[in-house]
Design a protein that fits this description.
Layout: E1 7-11, H1 15-27, E2 31-35, H2 38-44, E3 51-55, H3 63-72, E4 80-85, H4 91-99, E5 104-107, H5 112-163, H6 165-198, E6 208-211, H7 212-224, E7 231-235, E8 240-243, H8 245-262, E9 264-274, E10 277-285, H9 314-324, E11 328-334, E12 338-346
Parallel strand pairs: 1-2, 1-3, 3-4, 4-5, 7-9
Antiparallel strand pairs: 6-8, 9-10, 10-12, 11-12
Length: 358
């Protein structure tokens, strides 16, 4: 709350009750936005709202349904929810509201002193969480930035050693392993910086026509130089999309890199169409992802059990890039069929000149 104002979205269909409470809250120093239905409230809520006050019985939905949708949306998940009800007032009702995600539950009529105190307590909690997240961002950003300097020095030294015929002849294998390790470190640092930037969406999207098949071929060509496994790309149908070529390149690169690192045999990339969606599938054989790891696989700093290496950010970044393009990513993994990551992105209405792969 840099300006000291606590911003609230108040969703209440009773005009008289909404007027009285909103007026008193404004007099107490709160900034109040109003909505009369659940859908209107969900359309108005923004990450900048510190708290949402929800009436539990609205014309179109219950308060806990609104709460669930607020908390499930990554953009608004940090918003604190105070549920306020005159009819759902039993201990069981209050317990259900809290168990379904509310941060506070009050029974109406409520004394204004209790309501304002509860709101200020929720705002302090929100501020503490924001401060912690900001500190983490600064730490991760500084870490990623500071790691680049010594890595650049190592990279320069590696280039000198590789150009020395005497050294390269005697220690060629060692130099190749060191080079691969350095490339891996560069990718980890890049992922760390992308993750830090994604927390507050500081990097804008640059949408332009992109040929998803050509982009996949470009990633496969680059990856093939250091891959112990063959990589095959099959363009089953034209798949033009409007997107950020650089971010989409990173999405495909992360999926192909994972398939190489954790798979066996040929890595297969298929690009095609499914109705109005462009489809990208990346498949590999080998040890499947444990079923227990699937529900949290796309969360940050999460790795499947037994799969070490990295920060556990690659699949999180894939998911975030897909979401920013109004798409999705899913995974299927079992011992018989192997592991397939499927990305769905809205296809462009018609093929257009595509941006070159970065």
């Amino acid at each position: 709350m840099p300006d000291g104002k606590i911003r609230i979205l108040f969703i209440e269909d009773d005009a008289a009750k909404r007027y009285v409470i909103a007026r008193q809250l404004r007099a107490a120093g709160f900034e109040v936005d109003e909505a009369t239905t659940g859908e209107e409230g969900l359309g108005k809520i923004r990450p900048e709202h510190h708290i949402a006050i929800l009436d539990m019985r609205l014309p179109d939905m219950h308060g806990w349904d609104i709460c669930r949708r607020i908390k499930e949306n990554p953009r608004t998940a940090a918003v604190k929810v105070l549920e306020l009800s005159a009819t759902l007032a039993t201990a069981e009702d209050r317990a259900r509201g809290l168990e379904l995600g509310a941060d506070c539950y009050l029974v109406h009529p409520v004394e204004m002193v209790e309501l304002t105190a509860s709101l200020r307590a929720l705002a302090r909690l929100r501020q503490a969480e924001d401060d912690k997240a900001r500190a983490q961002e600064l730490f991760l950003g500084a870490l990623g930035h500071d790691l680049r300097n010594p890595l650049n020095t190592i990279s320069t030294g590696m280039e000198l050693l590789q150009t020395s015929e005497a050294v390269a002849a005697e220690h060629g294998g060692t130099l190749q392993r060191m080079s691969r390790a350095m490339d891996r470190m560069c990718r980890m640092i890049d992922q760390l910086l992308v993750f830090t930037q994604s927390l507050h969406e500081t990097v804008p999207m640059k949408r332009q026509p992109v040929d998803l098949a050509e982009l996949a071929r470009s990633v496969a060509r680059d990856a093939a130089h250091a891959s112990p496994h063959p990589i095959q790309v099959h363009a089953e149908a034209p798949a033009p999309i409007l997107g950020d070529a650089g971010k989409l390149m990173q999405l495909v690169d992360n999926l192909v890199g994972n398939a190489i690192r954790y798979g066996e045999g040929t890595v297969t990339v298929r690009v095609g169409r499914d109705g109005g969606d462009a489809m990208l599938r990346v498949h590999n054989h080998g040890q499947p992802i444990p079923p227990a790891a699937l529900p949290t696989l796309f969360e940050p700093f999460t790795r499947a059990s037994g799969r070490g290496g990295g920060f556990g950010l690659g699949l999180y970044i894939v998911d975030q890039i897909a979401r920013k393009h109004d798409g999705s990513v899913a995974v299927a993994s079992n011992p018989e069929a192997g592991t397939t990551f499927t990305v769905r992105l809205p296809a462009a209405s018609q093929p257009t000149a595509s941006a070159p792969a970065p």
